[in-house]
Specification:
Radius of gyration: 21 Å
Structural class: alpha+beta
Number of helices: 3
Shape: elongated
Helix content: 25-40%
Number of strands: 3
Strand order of the largest sheet: 2-1-3
Order of helices and strands: HHEEHE
Oligomer: single chain
Largest sheet: 3 strands, antiparallel
Length: 108
């Protein structure tokens, strides 16, 4: 009985400690948030006629810079590349030299 009570108290303590240390907003310092802010500053929506979703393939190099590999929208390709290519990220939650695809939604 004493052993079971001890295990239950330990599990409860671990649960409370884990909950207390959890972040309330996990996206505040993420690379996704940084990329979103860079795209918003560029104001690429002026170059489109209707709402569009552009898939951007990119990777992060060892200097924590974004390297754009390709996009699936040829009219916005150069704008996205000039906006994001070689921009340094503050967050380090991206794996180096791994290819990522980020869908970017642009609304007119």
């Amino acid at each position: 009985m004493r052993f079971t009570k001890s295990i239950l108290m330990t599990a409860l303590f671990a649960l409370i400690l884990g909950t207390a240390s959890a972040s309330t907003n996990p996206e505040t310092n993420s690379a996704r948030t940084e990329i979103k802010k860079l795209i918003e500053k560029a104001d690429l929506a002026d170059n489109i006629k209707s709402d569009v979703i552009v898939n951007v393939k990119f990777m992060v190099n060892s200097n924590n810079e974004i390297i754009i590999i390709s996009t699936d929208h040829k009219n916005l390709d150069s704008g996205i590349k000039s906006t994001l290519n070689y921009k340094k990220l503050k967050s380090s939650d991206m794996e180096v030299n791994m290819t990522y695809t980020l869908p970017v939604s642009l609304k007119k």
